[in-house]
Amino acid sequence: MYSTNSKDEVVIKLVGKLSLEFPEIDQLKVRTIAEEVLYKYDVLPQETALVASDIEEKLAIYLASKKLDGLSSQTLKNYQYNLLKFADYLRKPLSSINSMDLRMFLTARCKNMKQTSTNGQISILKSFFGWLHMEEYIPKNPAQKLKQTKEPKRLRHPLTEEEVELLRQACITEREQALLEFIYSTGCRLSEVVNINKNSINWHEMTLCVIGKGNKEREVCFSTKAKVLLKKYLLTRKDNNPALFVTSKKPHSRLGGRSIQREIKKISLQAGFQKSVFPHLFRHSFATHKLNNGMPLHIVQYLMGHETPATTEIYSQVSKENVLHEYKKIS
């Protein structure tokens, strides 16, 4: 009884969708073909309101498992937020979800996203469904066929050494000087800088241990200039907070990521910069300057906490001067 109505509805929607995509299409001909194809089939609507979804239940187990694997709280929040979006979109048991379901979700979710953001969504789905399949919660992995979209390759533009010097000179307070020099000389991620404590610093060797991505610990170095400015800044402190960088006002709590971003932006405005300057730009500049000054790639890779040399190479950018110098050497 109600499959005939459903079949008519499918045919009408199909003709409508195709007409939007291909305005010159012969609607009557398409309708005739669709009706012929579906003639011997029963079409039933999906009763989404009655379908039980087990996504939220499995998602909780997945996130707990990934937390044990060492994923950061920020990454876990990102996974949870995006997978709950998926759960809201598709009310189906996980075992019945197929590749087309995932593609339809990605089409709706990523309509106005850049390729990098789309690839992030694909990675999350591949991770979740790959885990479900490995743990034998589902018989097949529907995300296995999903492919990353091709991202345009763009040159990243680091700060020049002259620009770094101009930013140094624009610093007013001891904290500004110490913060800028420390970020630039260590190449640390913003989250790593936030979590550093004073007692983790080896002043004699000018090194310290940081906790990076995946809860992995590594040793980084800082320059003599950074050492001098850090000590000068710490002498101005009257608080007992263990954090390396704290707020200027009482109760002098640990300086958060947003506050560090604001501090760097303020320094760039003081320097009269028109370009956007942010903490990660110093990390990129650190890698570029070290590689251009002859530091081996594997050393820069270790200092930055990258698992593969390919990741480090993304941050590197050979300077025009170095290219000309190397070319003239063998000409």
Top CATH class of the largest domain: Mainly Alpha
Shape call = elongated
Q: Radius of gyration over alpha carbons?
A: 27 Å
Number of discrete helical segments: 15
Question: Helical content, roughly?
Answer: 55-70%
Mean pLDDT: 86
CATH architecture of the largest domain: Orthogonal Bundle
Keywords: Cell cycle, Cell division, Chromosome partition, Cytoplasm, DNA integration, DNA recombination, DNA-binding
Domain Tyr recombinase: 154-328
Domain Core-binding (CB): 53-133
Family: Belongs to the 'phage' integrase family.
Notes on the structure:
- By secondary structure, the chain is mainly α.
- It folds into three domains: 2-38; 55-145, DNA polymerase, domain 1, CATH 1.10.150; 161-329, Orthogonal Bundle (hpI Integrase, Chain A).
- The protein is 56% helix and 4% strand.
- It has 15 helices and three strands.
- It has helices at residues 2-21, 27-38, 55-68, 73-89, 99-109, 115-134, 161-170, 174-186, 190-194, 224-235, 257-270, 279-292, 297-304, 309-315, 320-329; strands spanning 201-202, 207-211, 217-221.
- It has a three-stranded antiparallel beta sheet.
- A hairpin with a 5-residue loop joins strand 2 (207-211) and strand 3.
- Helix 1 (2-21) runs antiparallel to helix 2 (27-38), helix 3 (55-68) runs antiparallel to helix 4 (73-89) and helix 8 runs antiparallel to helix 10 (224-235).
- The N and C termini lie far apart (84 Å).
